[in-house]
Structures are given as C-alpha cells and as structure tokens.
Design a protein that fits this description.
The protein is an alpha+beta fold. Helix content is 32%, strand content 21%. The strands form four sheets. Strands 2-1-10-5-6 form a five-stranded mixed sheet. The model is unreliable at 1-7 and 159-170 (pLDDT under 50).
Length: 533
C-alpha cells in the first residue's frame, strides 16, 4: 500500500513539460561532471567543454575571432566556455522534454552529445588519439542512464477523459522524483568539483620545475632603462609592463603546463643538418642575451590595449639556426619559412630572413627577471621584434620546422591573415581617458608610440581641427621598444577631440584612414573625446 503523500495527482500539461525539461538538467550536469572527472585520467584538454570550445575556435572565421577579442578582451575564452554551457543547458532541457514522451530517444540524444564531444576531442591538432574520446563517452553514458531513469519517474503524457480535465490514471511519485533529481544534482556537483580540483592540480611537475628554476645571468645583459624613458605623467602606461598586466591573446582554453625538465625542442626540415633535439638545459648552456622588446598583437585595434613592453632573456634564434646549418634565403638557403609548433597544436610561420637578419629574435626563457609565466609560454617561447605576434610569438614551443611559404600555411594564414606582418607605426593616448572631464587650464596629454625595428622619431597632437603640435618625447630605450610622449595642453571649456599620430625613423607617418585588423594589422589615428569643465 502506497504511503500517504507519496502518490499525487498528475500535474497539468505545462507542469509536465517543465518537469520533463528539469529532468534534462541533472542529466546534462551529470554528463559534464563525469566527463570532467574522467579527463583527470586522460588530460584536461580532453574534457568536452574544452574540446568543443577548441574546435569552435579553430572553425571560427578570423573576423569573428577579432570581434570576440574586441568585445570580450582577454575574457574571450571565458565568454566562449560560458556560451557553450548555455547551449548545452538548452540542449539538456530539450532532451528532457523529448524523454517525457520518448525515453529512449531522449537518452539517445545525450549519447549524441557525447559523440560530438568525442569527435571534437580526437580532432584537435594536439590530440594523442582515441583516448581523448573517453571523457565525452563516459560522461554521455552516465547522463543518458540518468535521463532514462528520471524520465521514468515522471507521469506519462495522456489524453484527457470526460469528466476530468486531467483524465484518469494513477498518480506519480513526486517525492521520489525530487529525491532522485536532487541526489543526482548533488553527486554531479561533487564529481564536477573533484574533477576541476584534480585537473587544476595537474601539472605539478611543471609548476615545480618553474619554482625550482634559477635563471642564469645573461651573457649579454640589457642596458639599464634610460633615465627619462618613463613619462612623469599620471595615467601613462609603465615603461616595462608587469607580467600580470601583460596582454594575453591566444587560442588555448586551458593554459598548457609543461615540465621544463621533460621539455624538448625539435629542429628539422630543409637546410637543417639532420634533425636536432634540444633540452631546456641545453638552451641554458648557450649564450643568453637580455633585451627590452615591445610585443604587439595583430588584433590590437587603433588605441587598443594589446601591446606591452618587457625585458626578455633567452637564446639568439639566429645563432641556434646557424649552428643547425640553416642559411637564410638571401644567401641561398632552401627554406623561407620557420614554422613554430606549440604543445597545444598551434602553428606560427615566421620569415627565415627576418629571424636571421641581425635583429634580436629570441627563444625566450625569462620575462621581467623571472622564468616565463605559464600564461606567457613557459618554459620557452619565441620573441621576434618588429613582427606581429601571430607570425612570430609562438608560446609553449616544442618544434621548429624549416619549410617554405608555398609548401605550408600556418594556423592564422589558413584563416585569411597575411603571411608576413611587420608591425605598423602606431600611437595611443593613455591619458586623459575617453569622455574624461578635466578642469580648464593645463591638462597633460600622454601616451605611447611604437614602430619596432624602425623607432619613433616624432609624435604630434591635434586639438579638434587645429594644427598639429609636436609632443615631447621621453628618452628612447631602443628602436624595439615603445616610446612615451607627453603634451601640455592649455585646455579651454567645452567639448574637444584629441588626436595623435606618430612618425617613425624612416619618415613614415601614420595614415589617417582607419582600417580593421584583418589581414595584417589596424591603421589610423587614435582620438579621444573629452569635456573640459
């Protein structure tokens, strides 16, 4: 005999649909939680959210990626993962409604979700093989079984009969459904949390290898930053960008954690005297140089934040290549492209001529006096002054292949970005900020300008449609670093538009016409509107 209160009348149609949808959520959560836990035994990148997110990044047109970076900034990866979770939640709700009428079809839908995750995981460039499919498969099986079970606890749809708006039939076990759904949700939360913690604890060897690393002093240290290189104006960027504030733009949804003691670099391809493999210790035994170099992302809009200046220490890339027998194409070498590969599958193609023309192209191991942060490529990354990052700044690097531009298109070139991309002359107003309301009188306008490999010769400011006025340049560190500037503006009340432009040492001045970042970097003057009170 059924206990009183255990059996209740069947709910109405709308309530049944709502309960069906809600049964899908615990099933979806269970699938993700089990997959997250299973990824601990495989690798964090094999989790379905990361795998599907990575596949989405790979297949997204360059213009859309550029929009995401402009809109979400360095939170673009978080926005993508949240978007995936929202889509999965809606999918789970729909499967719950489907399972209300067709339990097997609903359960099969969860398995379809698992298949998508498995295909995405095994299709990633850095996937080791079918083992990456396991988290999605196991998660899908768990979610499918749970949805089938929960749907069986719900009242089946029925036709209404005369005399009863709800029709005849037995009641349903509401208390049992609530208990089962609650228990499933709690177990999923626990499993997901445990998976996150364990995945986050992964890479302990990598963390230890970085903590234990004492970088040797540079054989060729960077000169001291000149006095006066930092403009004494509140609000202007620091001359050397702190590591925590240095921009990060890449496609890695999970930051790779590479153990420096196990890291290896393979150098191969036409022009190399046999494939060569180097360890991290091998690199540190070579001559180390230290240089201040400004890096710029090609996704940086006019006036944007994706530029930073740091003190890097590393090995001269040209010397390393020369020791491997590589000759630049201008001297008859067979390869004109150097393809750097990251541990996460990213490929970046750099002109061989550029890395061997005498500039301070580095395999960097340190940044601002410490080992590279994981976010910025530990244990080794490329730094090539004068080139946008997408053609030079490979992080978490594991191989260098000599090839030709005709033979191979690197990751971003496949997505309609230019093969070669020297940094364009640019300038930015750091202070006052847009829509600021300074007081009338002397207002300091200040910012930065950069033209790596050429150097900044002049910066000019224009107030509204007035004449161009030359700004005061701060001391120059080198032609590979940005240069700060300032201008004392005698501000009058009212609305004003401040515009800046820079001229490099070749005589090239920024053009007025604004262009977007695709295919080889933005152009145009940066302007800031203010209201003087």
């Amino acid at each position: 005999m059924r206990d009183k209160g255990q059996e209740t009348r069947k709910p109405g149609r709308a309530a049944r649909l709502g309960l069906g949808a809600l049964s899908g959520l615990p099933a979806g959560c269970a699938a993700l939680a089990v997959a997250e836990l299973a990824a601990v035994a495989v690798r964090p990148e094999a989790g379905p959210v990361i795998a599907v997110g990575g596949a989405a990044v790979d297949r997204t047109p360059g213009a859309v990626k550029d929009w995401a970076i402009r809109t979400f900034g360095t939170n673009d990866k978080l926005a993508l993962q949240l978007g995936i979770l929202v889509v999965l939640a809606l999918f789970a709700l729909a499967l719950g409604v489907l399972a209300l009428r067709h339990r097997r079809a609903g359960a099969a839908g969860v398995l379809l979700f698992g298949a998508v995750g498995a295909v995405a995981a095994t299709g990633r460039p850095d996937s080791p093989g079918v083992t990456d499919a396991l988290p999605s498969v196991l998660g899908a099986v768990a979610g499918s079984v749970l949805l089938y079970f929960l749907a069986g606890r719900l009242p089946a749809p029925h036709r209404a009969s005369a005399g009863s708006p709800e029709g005849p039939g037995r009641g349903w076990d509401r208390r049992g459904f609530v208990r089962a759904a609650t228990a499933a949700a709690a177990a999923s939360a626990a499993a997901g949390t445990l998976g996150r913690v364990l995945n986050g604890a992964g890479g302990r060897d990598a963390i230890a290898s970085r903590d234990d690393l004492d970088l040797p002093p540079a054989d060729s240290p960077a000169p001291a930053v000149p006095r006066g290189a930092q403009a004494r104006v509140p609000g202007v960027s620091p001359f050397l960008t702190p590591n925590k504030d240095f921009y990060r733009v890449d496609t890695a949804l999970v930051v790779p954690k590479v153990d420096a003691t196990a890291w290896r670099l393979r150098i191969h391809g036409p022009g190399v005297r046999g494939p060569r493999v180097l360890s991290f210790a091998d690199l540190l035994r070579r001559e180390l140089i230290e240089r201040d170099i400004t890096l710029t992302c090609v996704s940086n809009e006019v006036g944007g934040p994706y530029v930073g200046n740091a003190r890097w220490i590393g090995v001269r890339l040209a010397d390393l290549l020369a020791d491997c027998g590589v000759v630049p194409p201008s001297r008859g070498g067979p390869a004109d492209q150097l393809v750097a590969r990251s541990v996460d599958g990213m490929t970046i193609g750099t002109p061989v001529e550029d890395v061997m023309d005498g500039r301070d192209a580095l395999l960097a191991v340190g940044m601002n006096g410490e080992p590279l942060p994981f976010d910025h490529g530990f244990p080794v990354r490329m730094v090539v002054p004068g080139l946008y990052g997408y053609v030079s700044a490979c992080k978490w690097i594991e191989s260098l292949e000599l090839t030709t531009f005709d033979a191979y298109d690197a990751y971003w070139v496949e997505r309609d970005w230019a093969r070669e991309a020297p940094v364009k002359t640019q300038s930015r107003i750091d202070t006052p900020k847009p829509f600021a309301r300074p007081k009338a009188g002397t207002v300091m306008v200040a910012g930065v300008a950069w033209a790596q490999q050429r150097g900044i010769d002049k910066v000019e400011i224009r107030i509204d449609d007035g004449p161009w006025q030359e700004a005061t340049l701060a001391a120059e560190d080198s032609r590979d670093t940005w240069r700060q500037w300032s201008y004392a503006w005698q501000a009058t009340k009212g609305g004003h538009l401040l515009t800046v432009r820079a001229t490099d040492r070749t005589g090239g001045t920024q053009t007025e016409k604004r262009t977007r970042t695709v295919p080889d970097g933005a152009d145009g003057w940066h302007s800031v509107a203010v209201t003087v009170e």
